[in-house]
Amino acid sequence: MTTPTATSAVGGAAPTSGSRSAGPERPTRRPRRSGRGRWVGWLFVAPAFLVYAVFVLRPMAVSVQYSLYEWNGVAASTFVGLRNYANLFTDSTLYGSILNAFQLIVFFSFVPVTLGLLIATSIRQIAASKLAVVARTVLFLPQVIPLVAAGMVWSWLLSSTGFVNQALSWIGLGDVTRAWLGDFTFALPAVGVIGAWVLLGLCTLLLLSGITKIDPSLYEAARLDGAGPVREFFAITLPSLRQEIGVCVTVTVIAALASFDIIYISTQGGPGNETMVPGLQIYYLAFADREIGQASALGVALMVLVLAVVLPIQWLTKERDR
Amino acid sequence: MIVNRREAFVGRALLVLLMLITLVPFVSLFVTALHPSGTYPLGISWPASPQWGNFAAAFQAADMGALLLSSALIVVGVVPASLLLGTMAGYAFGNLRMRGHRAVFLLFVLGLTLPFEGILTPLYFQIRDLGLLNTRWAIILPLIGLFMPFSVLWMRAHFVNVPGELSEAASVDGASTWQQFWRIQVPLATPALTSLGILLFLWTWNQFLLAIVLVDDASKRTMAGALGAFQGQYGTDIPLLCAGAVLILAPTLAVFLIFQRRFVAALLQGSVKG
């Protein structure tokens, strides 16, 4: 029943042509099946593609179209060529929002991944303990609640009478207390802390699940060779986790560049434009300022930006030896 | 494995610290919700007389019953349809692999990292022209489309690993592709479908952006969207606001704690595949 041709056809990499060329050997069955599968397959894809095309691909294309016009959503539109894109480089609030998003990457991405690596490494040996099982549930809580809720809770924690200032006073740092989200210098880092809180647990658990797949004998060998925890980390843990780190960085970088919910609820982009990000800026441009063309141009730029950042990360961290 | 006692201790301490940091916001929220309505409590402090009535007041003010119903309706609109369409397309891409499927599959991959804000503006006008603004369809239909890349990739990843002998055997028995799909492939895909269903439920329930842009009436929104409206209305009454937030979080947290094993597994897999 099972022949080499059949297995190669399902091996994942082999395209349909492989099973088609196997046709002559078994003229009665294989060609008919793959022949029928060819058009029936499109019927299976059609409904999904239809919804995707109408509600995602079409708006994407229309976004590009809108971005070339000046339009207030009601009156006639004027073709302006690439002017809306040029504005992205000259208008300080527009490129400022993109720069802010890049600064958020430090908090949304760098902090959770680095801390996650440190924590996952330290708890490697107790990964199977009862405490770690409880921790898996607790650390996932921020992933389960809506980001809006996280933003709300933290606005309260970071307010002038909130817990953060209370805790700072306890440890004798009463002088630095302030309304963190309303402070021109600290608003963006404060928003970043909220993102870091949301993403730290996810990164830690992803990295931990990667670490527990590493062959323990590698660590034993390193110990016998007299390697300390630091050498162990750089020689074994870090290289083995390339894929997991790639996943964490990708997820968190997208969360930073496309952030909306947390900032909408905690600062609305203020004070001034200190915490303005592209997502929120698009919302304001389109639905408050009625500058549909400019909003669409920023939207296109954001889509391209995310791809431009994510693709290299994917390429750098994907498993090459498989 | 060599377990170093000192290292194990440091690990435990770190883990406890991390859990505390995760839990502090929830504790703060809950404690603040018990303070008398209209006051400005200082940090985390237990109130002299806990106002349990705040929860009832917030339940009424936020019209929780209607909100729960609305969110449930949206989930019912999004999740089964996404599962069905995603599974069918995933089956075609993973198992049938008709000629030219790669190009179309790439189109789906393209949408995987799409920030929703990127298509927000045209989507608004499209929904308006369809006459769906301010209805639940305005959230349901775009979400099905936006979740499609992930659903298709997820189900394709499952079907690619199903041995081909299975469909071979079935087609020998004379089963049509459609029968094979329903009687053999879908029942075998239950674990993958369950995890995908959990993720889609969570992402729908927590959807905020589409809700605030496309639906003005808070009682037709998702839970997350309603929370935004609730903050706009009661933003100055911190204890009441916190009580409302606790109520809005409660259903998700309850579902999470009941199905926590599946949730954790789904979320871990979900980010790896996404």
TrEMBL record, chain A:
It holds the Pfam family BPD_transp_1. Keywords: Cell membrane, Membrane, Transmembrane, Transmembrane helix, Transport. One of its GO terms (biological process) is transmembrane transport. Residues 98-313 form the ABC transmembrane type-1 domain. It is found in: Cell membrane. It comes from Cellulomonas aerilata. It is a multi-pass membrane protein. SUPFAM superfamilies: MetI-like. This is Sugar ABC transporter permease. Belongs to the binding-protein-dependent transport system permease family.
TrEMBL record, chain B:
SUPFAM superfamilies: MetI-like. It is a multi-pass membrane protein. The chain crosses the membrane at residues 12-34, 67-91, 103-125, 137-155, 186-205, 238-259. GO terms for cellular component: plasma membrane. Its main location: membrane. GO terms for biological process: transmembrane transport. Residues 68-259 form the ABC transmembrane type-1 domain. It comes from the Bacteria. PANTHER family: ABC TRANSPORTER PERMEASE PROTEIN MG189-RELATED, ABC TRANSPORTER PERMEASE PROTEIN MG189-RELATED-RELATED. Belongs to the binding-protein-dependent transport system permease family. This is Sugar ABC transporter permease. It comes from Cellulomonas aerilata.
